Every structure is written in C-alpha cells, then in structure tokens.
Amino acid sequence: MLTSKQRAALRRQANGLEPVFQLGKGEADEQLTRAVADCLAARELVKLKVLPSSPYTPREAAALLADGTGAEVVQVIGSRLVLFLQKPEGSRFAGLLAGQ
Questions:
Q1: What is the pLDDT of residue 100?
Q2: How many CB atoms lie within 10 A of CB 69?
Q3: Residue 99 above 70 pLDDT?
Q4: N or C: which end of the chain has fewer CB within 10 A?
C-alpha cells in the first residue's frame, strides 16, 4: 500500500509519460490484462487512456486492471490512469519510495 507521499512522488514521475495503452470499445479482457502486466514488469509505472467509446469509466478500468495485475492505482484523472507495480529487485523507484 502506497502512502500519500509515495503516491505524490509517483504522480510527479508519471506526469511526463505518454499513455502506453488505450482502452476503447473492447472489453478489458485477459489479453489486455496480460499486456499491461508485462508492461508493468518492464516499466513499473504505466499510464493508460480510456477512450469515450469504452464500456468502462476510467475508475472502473483502473480498479479492474489493478486487480488483474496486482498493481496499485496511483492516479485517475480525466480519461487517464496511472498504475504502479514495484519490481522485487532492481526497482528504479526504490530510492524515491524509500525516502518518503
């Protein structure tokens, strides 16, 4: 569980990121969840965009993907959401999160 200070530090890091995935008309199925999990394993911090044609609200999509990947929701703002899953070893955010 992230503290509010850790969440704020991750929001700062995610500010300059471009969305890696877009969630549109299709369902948030196992294939999307697996792709997001793979991306989280590589990057740790991922930004996604929920299109207006999506059957999910951004909050619903964030909760669904966080459950499916084991990640934490850092932020949902407008149509964008940010997920975080820290690597067990070699995390680039370890110092950022430890100092908070």
A1: 54
A2: 20
A3: no
A4: N
20-52 exposure pattern, b = at least 16 Cβ within 10 A, e = fewer: bbebeeeebeeebeeebbebbeebbbbbbbbee
Distance CA(28)–CA(48), nearest Å, equals 12
For 27, the token pair is 């369902």
The type of residue at 10 is L
Amino acid at 27: E
**42-51 average pLDDT score:** 96
List, in order, residues 6 or more apart from 31 with CB less than 8 Å away.
Answer: none
